[in-house]
Amino acid sequence: MTICELSYYEKWAASMTAVFCERKLITERDISAHLGQQDVPAASHDYKPGDLVRVVEEDFSRVFRKPHVRTPGYVFGCTGVVERVCGRFSDPGLLAYNERSQQQTLYRVAFDHRMLWPSGYTHIDWNEPGSQVHVEIFGSWLRPATAGDVRVCRERAQSARLVETEQTRRIKAHVHAGHESREAAEVNAVAKEHINDEAFPLRPLADALVAALVARKVIAMPELNAAVSDIEAMGANMEGARLVVRAWKDAAFKSLLLQDAAAAAAQLGIATSNYHADGPSAESQHAEHSHAYPDGHTILTVVENTPHVHNLVVCTLCSCYPAAVLGLSPSWYKSLAYRCRAVRDPVRLLREEFGVSIPPHQHVRVHDSTANLRYLVLPMQPAGTEDWTEEQLLPLVTRDAMIGAGLPLSPSSVPS
């Protein structure tokens, strides 16, 4: 809502609030308290890998001001296991209020996919391992969990799977007649997500801003064009693929890459953070569990595909992506369809949209890049290429294979 849409007294209230806050007579937290705004309380508990935790349940639909929440709602109230201590970062949640928060510990938590999305399973055997979703969560959102909490979540998942609502029955009974074709539906869906002047009325303002900056000689068009070219060329040299093929050929390098991607990449002269120079290694950070990173710093984490695990990368909240080693993300990676289906039904998504069939003995591990980690998948080396050189292997490594949406090319597809 714009200020022009406010009523007379609303304009006065908004203006006076801004003035009083500016003069530090009151704070925004004072206003928030009277509006019923409650931040997620800071947690003093420190966790280590293997700890059982529960995600705090919050309903931000009833608060006046919406924070920039980096914890996806589909894990609210769920139990999981701490997989990694990632370091200390500033939680961007308060940036929506133009405030900065104190740094806190970021954890990577593993959730059982069956507990999050039980409706997709015809049978659940909790004694058998299943697919997982790994999510980055700040410590203030976590609480220690017990076996009883896990039991409650599992019972809730079983109930959700078994109970068929009236709405579900109506959907199943619905006769699919007179609908547009799938091709037409996809075209319309893409068109709705496409950027256009009607959807973004301030686009002319951006053009005017560039013109004004050039006219004032703040920037020059050649400088601007060079910056755009640099952005468009990010990852064009396939630095991610160089990491992959070196790991295929060098067992020691592979071990380091999986443990500390920044240190391994540095051996090849590759920077892995999207916004800042690589800081202290992950190994030293894990040892201390307390290293504080600058705002915006990202940590590359490499996850390995095995005969039993296939990894898939997504960002359900926006479009976080390992741009430093893969370049700009593809448009479908940012689409609502991919972001939703990747965590809800990854096996079907891979089969229907990417032609990747996951065998029954292989589980999918989804990595939801919700905070400061960026993920790169280390795919399995194609059989029959053990004697190939790194130069011969490079063409086999595709962008999609390094985010789990594809597999390496077969040796027969590469000209000899």
TrEMBL record:
Kinase is among the record's keywords: no
This protein's name: Nitrile hydratase
Pfam families: NHase_alpha (PF02979), NHase_beta_C (PF02211)
Residue span(s) of domain Nitrile hydratase beta subunit: 43-143
Assigned keywords, A-Z: Metal-binding
Residue ranges constituting the Nitrile hydratase alpha/Thiocyanate hydrolase gamma domain according to the UniProt record: 206-405
Organism: Salpingoeca rosetta (strain ATCC 50818 / BSB-021)
Keyword flag Secreted: no
A GO term for molecular function: transition metal ion binding
